[in-house]
Amino acid sequence: MNTIALTDILIIALYFVIVLGTGFYFSQKRDESSSEYFLAGRNVGWIAIGFSIFAANISSEHFIGLAGYGASRGLAVGSFEWLAIIFILILGWFLAPIFIKSKVFTIPEFFGNRFNSSVRIYLSAISIVAYLVTKVSVTLFAGGLLLDRIFGLDIYLSAIIMVVITGMYTIVGGMGAVIYTSVVQAVFLLVGATALTFIGLNEIGGIAGLHAKLSASYFDFFNGMSDPDIPWTGIIFGGPILAIWYWWADQYIMQRVLCAKNIEA
User: Which single residue of 17, 70, 89, 118 has CA 20 to 30 Å from 161?
Assistant: First the structure.
């Protein structure tokens, strides 16, 4: 366990107070309709949706897992996030208008209406399994590991605490509470990441110091085909397949898009 200063404790406490306060505040403003509960009444503006998507994508597994992997392997680790630039733009220009106008609650429902109920059930099953395996478990483990290192809490106890805290405002407030707490979280993430970047660069002598301490291969966006983990072929041919699912079909991301008032929102 690392010793943390009183200032650190106060900042963490302030964060939880603001997040929980935001969640419960918006939970009191919703009505009892299914649209309000699951899609925030389809009345969310694009700024809140953008912040929410950002916070949904960037969470503890990025700050701990992806950052650590990037430190050991270089910029190529971030290839999936770079691909997001292309796929999110396509989503906004072409796909989001179709999904929003369909007035569906989920992406499996959309494809079920387009094809048949078997497709809807199949896609729902894939979505649930993928969400549990790739998002929930990894996020809870990374967050639990962080609390374990900072406070010395058991990693499983930490995971339970996180589930209880987020579950409280999610169950009570529905998607509206999730959206607007995500906005708060996104601000904290951006401020914290920006501060950490400047502090880290200052410690090693800036960009020049970073280049001096690392080999040139760390700054390559594309690795050779012989790379065991991130060859350029995987980025070019495998990355887009993952991006199509994650940015265009994963309910975890798309539920936020479906909360929009309209395409001009």
Answer: 70
